[in-house]
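User
New here, explain this?
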Amino acid sequence: MERNGMDRAEFYAFLSQVLPEVDWDSPAALMESGELDSLDVLMFAGELYERMRIEIPSSQLKAENFASKETIWMLVSACAENGKKTQI
C-alpha cells in the first residue's frame, strides 16, 4: 500500500487501534465466529476513508473480504491501488 507509505505491520497496528476488541489473530473466520460484525466493518471502512482516503466499494463489503486480517489487507491494498488509478 505504497500510496500511504503503510506496510503490512503498520496496517495491522491500524486494525488493532480502530477495533481493539477484535482478536485479529483468531484462526476462525472473523465474521463467521462473531469476532467482527457488520457494524465493525462499516466503522472500519469509515475510519479507513477518514484517515487514509481509501474507499472500499459497497460491493466489496462482504464477509469473505473480512475473514482475517490478511484478507482485509489484500482488500485495502487493492482499493488503494484502484484509487491511485482514478486520481487525476
Summary: The CA atoms of residues 27 and 86 lie 35 Å apart. The chain has one domain: 2-86. DSSP finds four helices and no strands in the chain. Residues 2-86 form a domain with the Non-ribosomal Peptide Synthetase Peptidyl Carrier Protein; Chain A fold (CATH 1.10.1200.10).
